[in-house]
Amino acid sequence: MNVRLLFASAKACTGIMCSAVTPQWQDSVDKLIAHGEFAKAEKLMKSLPSKERKNDAVRIDSLKTIMQRIRNDFTITPEQGCKMIRERMPSATDSQIENWKNTQKLEVMNIDGQEWWFRKSIRNLWLLADEFAEEHAADKNESYDVRRKYFLDAMKSCPDANNVRNWTHVNLTFTLDVDADAVPAGEKLRVWMPFPYENVRQRNIKMESSNRDFVYSEGSKHHTVYMEAIAEKGKPTHFEYTFSYEVGERHISKQDMLALLEPYNKNSETYKRFTMNEPPHMTISDAISKKAKEIVGDETNPIEQASKIYMWISRSFPWAGAREYSTIPNMADYVVSIGHGDCGQVALLYISLCRSLGIPARWESGWFTAPGEVGWHDWAETYFEGIGWVSTDPSFGRNAVDTPMADYYTSGLDIYRLATNETIGDVLSPAKTFIRSETVDFQAGEVEWKGGNLFYDKWDSNLKVNSYDKCNQ
Questions:
Q1: What is the Cα–Cα distance from 452 to 19, expressed in whole angstroms?
Q2: Rounded mean pLDDT of 24-38?
Q3: Which architecture does CATH list for 251-421?
Q4: Domains of the chain, residue spans
Q5: H-helix or E-strand spanning residue 352
Q6: How much is the average pLDDT of 276-304?
Q7: Who's near 194: CB < 8 A, 6+ residues apart?
């Protein structure tokens, strides 16, 4: 693990303006953390001269936080893990379990000489191991049937000039509750929460009500509502707002795109900006470039190339619960090495592979808001000259492989989306002082006070969909 990459951009790790130059001592700390020698890393940072500790206080605090998050993610002992496996699969052998570890179906890490299993590893095992594939076939088919229903419903309306159809008015309420006594009484809580932005699929955004004064973000690609409150002793602190927007289904068929495609203008700002190497998570490494060329072979058409990448990801990387993004130094390389990924991880892999071939691609994320399925979700957008930006969801593609909708999510999205983020790791607005709970994405919210960041165990947030009403197109 190259923790140094987490600090390649001040934006990516904390949202503060710390020095972009990595101090020399961090090279040694990085190597210790990479080898799981956390105690030695902490001892080294503690031994730094007082002036250096003061100057690099936020950097040191962030590194300590990363190590603690890794510890929090890897909490199962091998003995506990084996017992949990055999409670469900009594016939599991030691060699079988060892094979699952070697193939990373079970994710493990050695920390200070002790083997620890990822806290979601047992649940992930049932999703990843070949022995349990048949158990999930019915779930996959059911998921596809639901997505197909959304598509057929959208096709009942005519698209507008931007190929958007099925415009729907959505009303939602977002709440965030900080635990009682999470900070001392009288201290100010600073809270950032997600909010939609205007794009080709989202319009007429309106704040309907809020329980506190708020300000909208300015200049950040994480679109937020910011509030403050004074903590009261023995009482949780509640933040709430209701908002609405209109959202439409949009897709463009591959046949239509191929007919409209033009050669890229490689001097344009769009092309240069979205084919660039953007560490730490949209990195065009040698391994990624090699893999992209292997995937597309002799194909030179960017639409076909992007489709091949999408299909390769959909077929190759089953969904599994992810560890904290902030502890992963390079998402694309990590996904390839471990062989599975959640929605954001495969989206970043898709973006990196496309960029390595000179295909502009970028991030978009927020929430999936379908009935009974409300939750965080991430996807991508791909740019083709003569067509513009089209949405691409390689995660949803996994349940559409070898179906009539196999190509749909290469260039389409349903209406059940709340897009709030246009990139990853941007500085929040107003600026956050301490390392974010989520250093890559932004969906749950962020909370801090003058004493530091408040992690997820100190607060809860929730998005409730109040209504979906069809618009008069």
A1: 19
A2: 92
A3: Roll (3.10)
A4: 3-74, 77-128, 164-248+425-470, 251-421
A5: helix 343-356
A6: 96
A7: 174, 222, 223, 224, 225, 366, 367, 418, 420, 421, 442, 443, 445
